[in-house]
Here is the input.
Amino acid sequence: MLVIACANVTNLTLMRAVRREHELMVRQAIGAGSTRLRKLLLTENLVLAGTGGVLGLGWPTPASAC
Here is the structure.
């Protein structure tokens, strides 16, 4: 089950990146450097991962109800 979830997250992240390719090209064309773009993507992914981690730790499971 965990492998399926990881594959799903990977697929969603990849598709999101493909859709944002045009946006990143426009940002680069108007003057954003590669470091700025890397920081933007890193920050967004860290926020997403942090939110998922907090929800994952706080989400009640049937095993924790015992």
